[in-house]
């Protein structure tokens, strides 16, 4: 990438940050007035907090990526990746729409689990015409043939969106955990010349940092399913588009939480802690990874719980970054 390209991409990232920060500041009170609120159930007084803050993320990503596409249309920057950029953006937008529907209509659990499959269609359409090979470090390339586009891509996209949607519910956790992932992807994209990964991780990193200014403890706004579904899609879709699928191992922590919740029949209630003297405790059998942390630590504050998850995710992201940079 040339210096000019990096400057222009930097402007796109800044645009994402500014749009999220300004729009969210405008939205919070309006979301509350319209009854789009959620209770912060890990607080002693369970305050009401604005919900659906993910709308600002969706807006920031759409405008920032549209700016990149505009630059490509005028050939100010190379346009060889335009089709995949559009496909990834459509996938993210579809995940956001599914989240909006769920936040407003409270979709049945099975519908919410399956519906993100449709968001993979733009990538399936492009990948069906391209390489069908997965490159796995220490093993080498594995050609999946048609199974790559028609099985792996939909399953990976759906799994990613749902995993980031269920590991949530604590102030700053969702986008706090996403920050080290996007940062590692940004670095990998730059070093390896993976422009789609570089563009989307940069846009999402900037949006996440802006969102955390409002979402960090104590939260003024929650992302809602609108925001949490976007996280998984915005990670997985660029990795598929740029053939760096191995980096999806960054979902390991999310996967562990998913396994625990599946074994407990995907509970929609009872996943929170019991607040006592500034800490969260679990007084029953843990049904989530967060509750296991509460149990093993014999009580932990919400801030420290979130910081621990972010720390672990940072370590996972660094290890994956070192692996893919060395291997690819």
Query: What is the count of distinct domains?
Result: 1
% residues in beta strands: 5-15%
Ends apart, CA distance between termini: 18 Å
By DSSP (H or I, 4+ residues per run), the number of helices equals 12
> Quick check: average pLDDT?
93
Rg is 19 Å
Number of strands: 6
Class derived from helix and strand content: mainly alpha
Largest sheet: 2 strands, antiparallel
Quaternary status: single chain
* Poorly predicted runs: none
How would you describe the shape? Answer: globular
Helicity level: 55-70%
Strand order of the largest sheet: 1-2
What is the H/E order? HEEHHHHEEHHHHHEEHH
At a glance:
The chain is mainly alpha-helical.
Description:
With 328 residues, this protein is mainly α. The protein has twelve helices and six strands. It has helices spanning 3-33, 54-73, 82-105, 109-114, 121-127, 146-166, 173-192, 195-215, 224-241, 252-263, 289-296, 302-327; strands at 37-39, 48-50, 133-136, 140-143, 274-276, 279-281. A hairpin with a 2-residue loop joins strand 5 (274-276) and strand 6 (279-281). Helix 5 (121-127) packs antiparallel against helix 6. The longest helix has 31 residues, at 3-33.
């Amino acid at each position: 990438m040339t210096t000019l390209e990096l400057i222009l991409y930097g402007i796109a990232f800044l645009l994402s940050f500014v749009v999220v920060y300004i729009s969210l500041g405008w939205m919070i009170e309006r979301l509350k007035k319209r009854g789009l609120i959620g209770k912060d159930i890990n607080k002693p007084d369970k305050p009401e907090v604005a919900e659906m803050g993910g709308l600002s993320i969706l807006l920031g990503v759409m405008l920032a990526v549209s700016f990149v596409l505009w630059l490509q249309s005028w050939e100010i920057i190379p346009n060889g990746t335009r089709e995949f950029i559009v496909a990834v953006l459509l996938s993210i937008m579809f995940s956001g729409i599914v989240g909006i529907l769920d936040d407003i209509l409270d979709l049945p659990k099975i519908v919410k689990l399956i519906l993100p499959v449709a968001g993979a269609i733009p990538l399936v359409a492009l990948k069906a015409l391209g390489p069908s090979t997965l490159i796995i470090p220490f093993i080498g390339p594995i050609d999946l043939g048609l199974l790559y586009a028609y099985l792996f891509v939909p399953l990976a996209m759906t799994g990613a969106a749902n995993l980031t949607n269920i590991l949530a519910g604590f102030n700053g956790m969702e986008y706090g955990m996403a920050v080290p992932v996007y940062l590692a992807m940004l670095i990998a994209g730059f070093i390896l010349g993976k422009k789609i990964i570089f563009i989307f991780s940069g846009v999402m990193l900037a949006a996440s940092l802006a969102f955390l200014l409002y979402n960090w403890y104590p939260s003024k706004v929650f992302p809602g399913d609108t925001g949490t579904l976007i996280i998984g899609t915005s990670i997985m879709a660029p990795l598929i588009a740029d053939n760096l699928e191995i980096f999806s191992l960054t979902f390991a922590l999310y996967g562990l939480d998913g396994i625990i919740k599946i074994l407990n029949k995907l509970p929609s209630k009872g996943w929170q802690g019991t607040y006592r003297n500034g800490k969260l405790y679990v007084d029953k059998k843990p049904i989530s990874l967060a509750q296991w942390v509460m149990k093993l630590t014999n009580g932990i504050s919400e801030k420290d719980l979130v910081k621990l998850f972010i720390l672990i995710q940072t370590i996972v992201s660094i290890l994956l970054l070192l692996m893919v940079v060395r291997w690819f």
